[in-house]
Amino acid sequence: MRHIVLRTALACAAWWGLAGCGRTVPADGELAVIPQPASVGLAEGSFLLSARSPIVVGMEGAEPVARALDQVGEALFGRPLRRADSPAAGAVVLRRDTALAGEAYALTVSPEGIDIAAGSPAGAFYAVQTLRQLLPPEAFGAGDVRRAEIPCLTIVDEPCMRYRGVMLDAARHFFTVDEVKRLLDILALHKINTFHWHLTDDQGWRIEIRKYPRLTEFGSVRTRTLIGRDPGGEYDETCRFDETPYGGFYTQQEIRDVVAYAAERFITVIPEIEFPGHAVSALASYPWLGCTGEQYEVRQTWDIDDRVYCPGKETTFEFIENVLAEVAELFPGPYVHIGGDECPMTYWKGCPHCRARMRSEGLTHWRQLQNYSTARLERFLNARGKQLIGWDEILEGEVTPTATIMSWRGTEGGIRAARQGNYAIMSPGTYCYFDHAQAVGEGEPLSWGGYLPVDKVYAFDPCAGLTPGERRFILGVQANLWTEYIADFDHLQYMLLPRLSALVETAWSLDRKDWEDYRRRVDRLRRLYDACGYNYARHLWAE
Ligand code: TNX
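Above: inputs. Below: predicted complex with TNX.
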C-alpha cells in the first residue's frame, strides 16, 4: 500500500448535511498505519462508525478487546459502544479464525460494518490498534463526534518478530503507577507485547518484598541525586546535585494492578531484579549481602559500582531466592530477568567467602562465580515455572543452554547466543538506547551516552550476520529507557516518541521496511500523538 491517497467521495458540506446534529469527521484522505501491515487491499466506499455501532464479541477471551473498542468510543463519542449478541448492520464483529496465527488478524471494513477475525484475542487487539490509526486523528479527544468515517479495506497482518519490548528503568528515577499505565497505553498503540520493568539498581530498590521490608523502607530512598554530567568516578565540588531526598516504590498490590493493566493490553511484564551487580540499594538495606558487611548509603551518582552481592555466602542466595520467590508469584509471565550486567569483581577477589566458594565449586576464574550464581538462580526459577533472562554479560565464561540473553553491548552477544542455541533479544546500545540523545543543539535535555536519531533507529537490522537457522533464536527487539537523566514522564515520552514507532517497524514489519514511506506514515501518527496528548520529539519533522 505504498503511497495510497484516498480521495473522499463526498464534499465536506454534504457531510454536515448527512450528519444531522453533532460532528461527522470525514476520512482524511490518507492511509498510514505504523507498524506497516503485511497486506492492505483498498476497496470502494467507507464505513461510518458511530456511538450506535454495536460490538459483537464472538470470540472467547476477547472482552479486553471490546473494552479497547469502548475506549475508542469514549474518545470519539464520549461513551462506550453497545454490545450486541449477533451481527447487525453497522456492527464491529470480533471473531476467531483458526487459520490465523496467534498474533495475526484480518480487519475488513465495508459499508456494512467492521469484521475483525483473529487467531487469538491478542490479534484482535492489534486489529483495534490498527483501526485507531485508520480513524481520522482529529476525531479523538473531545468525545463530541457523532460519526467518524473509515475507508473500506482489508488488512491482513501479523508480526515478523514475536518479542517486541520496551524497558523502563524505574530505579534511577521512579514513575508512578499512573505514569506506568500511561506508558503501557503508548506501548499498546505501537503493538508492543512486552514491558520489561527494571525495578532495582544501585540508586533505589522499587519493589516491595514482604520478607525484607528494609529494601523499600531504606533502600528506596537516596539522599540526593547527581543532575549534571557524570564525571565517571571523580565526584568533587564541581558536580551538580539535587539535594532533595529522592524515593519511591511499588507495593505488591500496585505491582498486581500494573500487571493486570498490561494484561488487558496483551502486554506481558518482565520484572528485572539485578544480581550480582547494580546492588548498592540492597547492600545499603542489608549490609551482610556484601563481601565486607560495611554499611553503605543508597548510591547518589550513576555508572558502574564495585559494591556488589557476595556470591560466597549462602545467606546471599537465601536472600535473593526469597526475593525471586515473591517476584515469581507477582508476575504471571514466563520470564524473570536477573540483570547480570556490569558486575565488577573487585570485592570478590579480596573476600574469604568468595575464595571458599571458588574452592568448593572447583572454579578457576573469578567470572565463574557469576556463572555459578546465574545457573543456581536459573534452577531456582525453573523450579517455579519461570525462565531466566540476563544481559549479555551472563555469556562470559559459560551459560546454561536454556538462559535467554538480552544483547545490549552491540548485537555480538545475541549473535553468539544464537550460534550456541540460546534464545536472544536484540537491544544494542547503538540502535535501541532511547536514553541517548536524538538531536543536538540548544534546548536538548542532558542525556546519557551516544547519539541515536530516529533514522538510525529505523535502520536497525537485528538479524544482520546471522544464517536463517540462527535467526530462529532471535526472539525480537527491545527499546531501553534508562532514566539517569530522565526525571519525569513528559521527558520520558519525549525520549520514546517517535523513536518507538521506528523500532516497532523492525519488530513487526522487518521484511517490509521503507524509510521514505515510514516518514510519510509517521506524519499521520504524530497527529494521533497530538490527539492523545503525548509528548514527542519533533526533530524528525523539522528536517
Ligand atoms: C548500561 S545496559 C547499563 C545501565 C545504564 C545504561 C545507560 C545495561 C545492562 N546496563 O545500567 O543505565 O548503560 O545507557
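The CA atoms of residues 389 and 404 lie 5 Å apart.
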